[in-house]
């Protein structure tokens, strides 16, 4: 899901009041659903969320909770579209979200190379459960994209 953050290169993350309220509600629900021996990390995060500033060493845990809320559909179900957008924006402020945004930008840049190119083939294959490879070929180049639970990202560019 998320990669380990280098805490000395990440700034603390300040939460807005509406972000704190949604996260406090969701962390309470998560903690209640977990067995007692798995709660400590999220109880610490809940205390941090209440204070309104997430220190670098807890940002990975925050990103994991946000990924769970967003990927499961719970964010939209409980907080509606507006709350989901707010949680997405918060996720985008984490290192995991920034990595996702950078991958999306690289993918879009590669896809722009297809503009005005005749497409000679498009293939989709399932390389592993939940992970799909999309290959788009033109006379000038071939792009391979990966689509999985983390989104769509560029895998390879060939000529």
Note down, in words, how this protein is organized.
The chain is of the alpha+beta class. The chain has two domains: 7-101; 113-158. The chain contains five helices and six strands. The protein has helices spanning 17-33, 40-51, 59-72, 74-92, 95-112; strands at 13-14, 53-54, 121-128, 131-137, 142-148, 151-158. The strands form two sheets. A four-stranded antiparallel sheet has the order 3-4-5-6. Strands 1-2 form a two-stranded antiparallel ribbon. Helix 3 packs antiparallel against helix 4. The relative contact order is 0.11. The model is unreliable at 1-6 (pLDDT under 50).
Quick gist of this model?
With 159 residues, this protein is α+β, with helices and mostly antiparallel strands. The chain contains five helices and six strands.
User: What is the count of β-strands?
Assistant: 6
Number of helices: 5
Profile the largest sheet: 4 strands, antiparallel
Please tell me the total number of domains: 2
The proportion of strand residues reads 15-25%
Q: Helix and strand layout, with pairings?
A:
Elements lengths: L12 E2 L2 H17 L6 H12 L1 E2 L4 H14 L1 H19 L2 H18 L8 E8 L2 E7 L4 E7 L2 E8 L1
Antiparallel strand pairs: 1-2, 3-4, 4-5, 5-6
Helix pairs in contact: 1-2, 3-4
């Amino acid at each position: 899901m998320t990669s380990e953050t280098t805490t000395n290169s990440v700034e603390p993350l300040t939460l807005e009041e509406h972000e704190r309220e949604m996260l406090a509600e969701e962390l309470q629900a998560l903690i209640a659903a977990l067995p007692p021996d798995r709660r400590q990390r999220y109880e610490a995060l809940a205390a941090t969320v209440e204070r309104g500033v997430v220190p670098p060493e807890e940002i990975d845990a925050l990103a994991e909770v946000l990924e769970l809320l967003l990927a499961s559909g719970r964010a939209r179900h409980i907080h509606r579209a507006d709350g989901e957008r707010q949680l997405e924006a918060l996720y985008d402020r984490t290192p995991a979200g920034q990595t996702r945004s950078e991958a999306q930008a690289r993918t879009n840049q590669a896809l722009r190379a297809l503009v005005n190119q005749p497409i000679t083939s498009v293939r989709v294959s399932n390389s592993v459960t939940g992970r799909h490879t999309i290959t788009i070929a033109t006379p000038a180049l071939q792009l391979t994209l990966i689509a999985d639970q983390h989104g769509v990202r560029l895998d390879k560019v060939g000529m």
